[in-house]
Specification:
The complex is a heterodimer of chains A (about 400) and B (about 290). Chain A has 10 helices and 21 strands. Chain A is an alpha+beta fold. In chain A, the strands form 4 sheets. Chain A has a 6-stranded mixed β-sheet, sandwiched between helices. In chain A, strands 13-12-11-14-20-21 form a 6-stranded antiparallel β-sheet. In chain A, strands 15-19-16-17-18 form a 5-stranded antiparallel β-sheet, with no helix packed on it. The two termini of chain A are about 35 Å apart. The radius of gyration of chain B is 24 Å and the shape is globular. Chain B has helices at about 1-30, 35-45, 60-65, 75-105, 115-120, 130-140, 150, 160-170, 175-185, 190-200, 200-215, 220-225, 235-245, 250-275. Chain B is mostly helical. The longest helix of chain B has about 35 residues, at about 75-105. Classes of the chains: A alpha+beta (about 400), B mainly alpha (about 290).
Chain lengths: ~400, ~290
């Protein structure tokens, strides 16, 4: 159990490539933190620096109260689960699990027990202790029946469990996961996700988890760290990040299907209120933002983002007002109870997610009316930063 | 029909090839079991050999071995012991040093690693004969002449070709395995011993068998560095055996002793051939 503190942590390759750029992150004891971002965003490098597998170019990392910049991985009291499992192919599952414990034995010598009977007794007791711990970890993960098998005889999911078990058995202060589920098929991934969550709850251990899959991040994290180009974009609970993204990147990266983005600008309407102008239409913004926030971006380009489930698509002509636009349906993708309508409106492609049973008679190619749910909209400045809404 | 014919011709070609390769071995075996008269006649071309000797002389073998060297049996046993000591130590030394250096070249980034690797490879281009005199002078200065040390010690400094082989193999082992071991608490030496060496079994098998056969049969090295009978290895002892009989008259004994010398190599090859095709790295990662 430990906290992890990253202060201005940087990794620079060569002299110019900033893989990780001044990351500040405080991880509480027992917290499940997920680092998420597109590939090459520096999330894995950050994790590997916490593990001690990469040197820092700048900043400090502390585990507990101790700054570990120059501490080798073995002395950091961490365990890591690798993307490709990294099981030792020449050892069976039991040996894989106990490999780290064997290294840490106090009574290591195989030979001394021959003449030193006290040593022999202690060594035996230690051996029993290791066996017990391995058995307990195997029971937790449901891999007891695999203990005598070599890794090559295991399925992907079983290998994944062994990899987690190898970390578990060590009882480390911090668990590090480097995209551990990305090699599993979708069904198994969901299953393992649930199990990891349950495991975290029962162990109450600090866990740092790296993934490029934002859904995985949302479902696992206590708090998530969204990264891009080595820079932290936002840190917060999944709900916070989903509801109040700090910038356009976070908004479009988190959430499936991605947020619809409409590039327009803010102008003053005939009634003296600030309106969002997109194409030939105007949308009132007063339900969400005050005049103060809006005046700061008046006449400049802005982007309005609306999540697909907040964008309502209605059959054409059913209802028309200033918050509506017309277009036509490009395609409909059904996912059981939910369906995504992809529509072409005003030259832009938008996605709306609705309950399948509200689809009615809508078909591909039909004309539709698009209703903006402005009270759920996000507003981004030209530089991508969000204009936060006090009325949220 | 066509396929059967194809199969038959395949086997015919393979059998013919095998027969050609086995011919000298058959000749050795037959001569070693012949009476001295018939064996001598076969050499001088008086009469040809039959496919199998009409009266088998098993006694040739103990006679050949006992007459090796000046004291009965002693010469053979000395040479056998020397050969075993040299071969076993050289095999161990070559495997340990080559895998360790190969590991360093494959997995440790250090200044000048590339240059050193190229330098090491370039030593393979140097013909062995070129280094005979400088090496002899070096070992003479160390006072190692007429001891087994000049044959054994260099093996512990690696062999360029096997270092290269180990390096290529180790470069294919996923980095994450080594990182997992680092996190598990192992040092580089620990990783080499506990992970790299076990995973390199196919390379080690090749390295060990080739080294064994080369050292066991090596004639040049022992001939240069060893002078006394007690230090001779089997390959050299065989040679002195031939001189002792002045060439051709006891060819049946020479062949018997030669065959005995060959036996360990043949056994070793038969026992280890499955390792050549074994790939242990399967199952390490997803796949």
């Amino acid at each position: 159990m430990a906290t992890v503190d990253l202060k201005a942590v940087s990794k620079i390759y060569g002299s110019t490539v900033r893989a990780v750029d001044s990351v500040d992150l405080s991880i509480a004891n027992g917290e499940f933190i997920v680092l998420v971002g597109p590939s090459g965003c520096g999330k894995s490098t950050t994790l590997r620096m916490i593990a001690g597998l990469e040197d820092l170019s700048g900043g400090t990392i502390a585990i507990g109260d101790r700054i570990v910049n120059d501490v080798p991985p073995k002395d950091r009291n961490i365990a890591m689960v690798f993307q490709n499992y990294a099981l030792y192919p020449h050892l069976n599952v039991r040996q894989n699990l106990s490999f780290g414990l064997e290294r840490r034995r106090t009574f290591k010598s195989r030979w001394r027990g021959i003449w030193d009977s006290a040593y022999r007794t202690q060594r035996h007791a230690e051996h029993i202790a290791i066996t017990t711990r391995v058995d307990a970890a195997a029971r937790t993960l449901g891999i007891e029946h695999l203990l005598n098998r070599p890794p090559r005889e295991l399925s992907g999911g079983q290998r994944q469990r062994v990899a987690v078990g190898r970390a578990l058995v060590r009882d480390p202060a911090v668990f590090l996961f480097d995209e551990p589920l990305s090699n599993l098929d979708a069904l198994l991934r969901g299953e393992m996700r649930t199990e990891l969550r349950i495991l975290h709850r029962s162990l109450k251990a600090t866990m740092v988890y790296v993934t490029h899959d934002q859904e995985e991040a949302m479902s696992l994290a206590d708090r998530m760290v969204v990264m891009k180009d080595g820079v932290v974009q936002q840190i917060g609970s999944p709900a916070e990040i989903y509801e109040r993204p700090f910038n356009r990147f976070v908004a479009s990266f988190i959430g499936t299907p991605p947020m619809n983005m409409f590039d327009g600008h803010i102008g003053l309407g005939s009634d003296g209120e600030f309106k969002f102008r997109w194409g030939k239409s105007e949308f009132s913004l007063k339900n969400r933002w005050g005049a103060g926030e809006l005046s700061s971006v008046a006449k400049s380009s802005v982007t309005v983002g609306i999540r697909p489930d907040r964008l309502v698509i209605l059959p054409a002509a059913e209802k028309q007002d200033s918050s509506c636009m017309t277009g036509h349906i490009v395609t409909i993708e059904r996912y059981g109870p939910l369906a995504d309508i992809v529509a072409q409106v005003n030259g832009a492609r938008v996605i709306s997610r609705i309950a399948t049973d509200t689809l009615g008679a809508m078909r591909e190619g039909d004309s539709i009316t698009l209703q903006f749910g402005m009270q759920f909209a996000h507003l981004f400045r030209e530089d991508g930063s969000a204009i936060t809404s006090p009325k949220h | 029909m066509n396929r059967t014919l194809w199969k038959i011709s395949q086997y015919a070609i393979l059998l013919a090839g095998a027969a050609v390769l086995l011919l000298p071995l058959w000749w050795m075996l037959v001569v070693s079991l012949e009476t001295p008269e018939r064996a001598g006649a076969a050499i001088t071309g008086g009469t040809g050999l039959s496919l199998w000797p009409p009266s088998i002389q098993w006694g040739n073998y103990p006679q050949a071995l006992s007459e090796m060297g000046s004291v009965p049996w002693q010469g053979f046993l000395d040479a056998l012991a020397n050969s075993i000591v040299v071969t076993v130590l050289v095999v161990i030394g070559t495997v340990l040093s080559s895998s360790l250096v190969g590991f360093a070249f494959a997995r440790i980034r250090f200044r000048g690693s590339r240059g050193l690797f190229l330098l090491m490879l370039s030593t393979m281009m140097l013909p062995g004969q070129v280094t005979i005199i400088p090496l002899f002078l070096l070992f003479r200065n160390l006072g190692w002449i007429d001891s087994l040390l000049p044959l054994i010690v260099p093996a512990f400094f690696g062999n360029a070709f096997f270092i290269f082989m180990y390096r290529q193999f180790i470069a294919q082992i996923p980095e994450s395995l080594l990182e997992a071991a680092k996190v598990d608490g192992y040092t580089l030496i620990g990783i080499w011993w506990r992970i790299i060496l076990p995973l390199c079994r196919p390379v080690t098998a090749i390295c060990a068998v080739f080294t064994f056969i080369y050292v066991w049969n090596d004639f040049m090295g022992p001939l240069i560095y060893l002078h006394s009978d007690e230090q001779a290895t089997l390959a050299v002892a065989l040679n002195s055996f031939r001189n002792q009989y002045g060439g051709l008259e006891d060819v049946h004994l020479l062949m018997a002793a030669s065959l005995v010398t060959m036996v360990p190599c043949i056994l070793l090859f038969a026992a280890s051939q499955r390792h050549f095709i074994e790939g242990l790295a399967r199952g390490a990662v997803k796949g």
